[in-house]
Structure formats: structure tokens, C-alpha cells
UniProtKB/TrEMBL annotation:
Listed Pfam families: APH
Protein name: Phosphotransferase family protein
SUPFAM superfamilies named in the record: Protein kinase-like (PK-like)
Top-rank taxon: Bacteria
Species whose genome carries this gene: Lutimaribacter marinistellae
Amino acid sequence: MSDTQNLDMDAVDAYLARHLEGYQGPLEAKKFDNGQSNPTFLLKTPTRNYVLRRKPPGTLLKSAHAVDREFRVQSALAQTNVPVGKVYLLCEDDAVIGSAFYVMEHLDGRNFNEPTMEGESNETRAAVIDEMNRVLAELHMVDIDAVGLSDYGPPGNYFERQIGRWTKQYRASETAAIPAMDALIEALPDAMPEDDGQRTLVHGDYRIDNMIFAKDSPRCLGVLDWELSTIGHPYADLAAVIMQWQMPPGKEGRGLADIDRAALGLPSDEEFIARYCERRGLPGIDRFGFYLAFTFFRMAAIIQGVYKRALDGNASNPERAKRLGQFVDVFAENGLKALKG
């Protein structure tokens, strides 16, 4: 097994014994199957459980796998209406386990891998999706100055910056020519709306499987996986939800394409967007197709990076990473359709 699958248990135990108040071993660890970017482990002790997220070892793309940013943003959100797990410590010394990591509380709740939420009632599905909508609106209404995150992202046009960043990331991890991706990279800058001045905290990968919900209610206990968070434009997060729903249903696509949503108690795209706008006091959103196309483009670039790491032997879940790599052209094609639509 590669180092992404295992932890140096002795090193982790010794470090936590020195630095984490109340920690008592012995320690056991189990790797979560999800979390393609930063390997994530459940740490078990006799008194309580924790979660450890680490950077993958090896050569990484610049600015990727920023566990220090994940730690900072969750610390800042602790006193807001955005539910996050409590973070305990950040270790940036690669000498401890081979890469930087942080430790946070283990949220004892339930996680839905797919928005269809198989086995749940229509009432539960509707309530969970509405809670997802509420938390997203709350995230975009956080006072970034008050929580100390005004410098968490650079100034300027968010979409212009992101398109440039992810184009570079994609080219750095490109393994074969994908015509749809090339066409999307060329078309996005020309389709970009004028900057409307909105500047909020954005999650960067907001979807239902990055959330933990209470076992006995639709209440969200915590939003996970903040690696791509920054200060940017809120419509990118909103469009990311809609993007996910347009993918095929099932374990890989995890979407709602061709699903009879009304029969499952799930809202339409338009209903979800309208409820979000209502919560934020917005009249509506013009040219939503661009924002949707952007999220397809960014996800295609992310997945390409995951696929490249699988080929290089650095992926958290190599087999799944290789399967995901087959979706790059699908995301790119959908991005082009969104621009035209």
C-alpha cells in the first residue's frame, strides 16, 4: 500500500499525546473511502474519536491539497451559522508523518452519497435538500471581515482568476487531448458576465456528500472538505449543486439526470435556485448558464488531476480515481451545453 493508505500510527500517537489536550491512547485508525484529494482517517481512542486529514505525499500541483486553509476556514466559521466540525490542531511539519495534516472532531451523523437518498421518505428528502439550501445561503452571508477572512482570497474577478488557475492545473495534469475541454477553455472567458461586485466566502465543492446530517433530523452538523474554499463569487457554489444534479444517478455520477424528482419529493433546479434567492434577498440570477458551465469546467480539471495522481501512484483511492478520470470529457461536454443553453 502507498503512504496515502496508511498512517505512521506511532508518530501520530506520540504527536497527539504531546499537542492535543485530553488525548489518551491507544490509537486505532481507519481510512475513509471518500476524500479523493486529501486522504482522511477516522482516529479511534477509548474515550473519543477524531478525524485526521493529511496532504498526500509526493510531488503535488502548486496550491493544491491546502490542509492549512481547511483548518483556517473551519476555525473562522466556528461562531457563525455555518455548521462545521471543531478543529483541534494543525501540523505543518512534514517530518512527523511525511506531509502536513490537521485533526478535527468526528461528527457522529449520517452522510448521503447521492441526492436521491435511497430509503428515505419524501418528507426527509425535501427537508434535507432545503437544509442544504439554507446552509449555502448562510455561507454566502458570512461577514468575512468579522470572522477574519477578508484576506482569504485575492481581489479581482473571481471567475477570471479561477478560469486561469484551473486551466493551468488542467494543462499540468493533462494526459490526452480532450477536444471538448479545449473548446470549453476557449469559450468561457468570452461568455463571462460583468462582475456584479458580490464577494463572499465560497466552499468550492458544495454538494450533499460533503455534508454530515443529524441521525434523527435533517439538521446539518457540519460541512466538510474545505480545500477549495476561498473568497469568490457565491453563484459558483450554487451552480455546483445544479451541476451535480445534472450528472447520471448512481455511485459514480451521483446525480439526478432523468430522475422523476417530484416523485421523490425533490425540488427542480429552478425551485432550488428560487429558494436560495429568497433567502438571500436576490431578485433572481441572469445568465446562469455561464456559472453552470464554469462549474463543469472546474470539476473536469479537478478530476483530471485526480486521474493523473492515480497514474503517478499518489491517489487516495487509485481505482476509483481511474474510474473518475473517464468523466472528464463528460463534464466538458456538459459545460459546453450549459454555455449554449
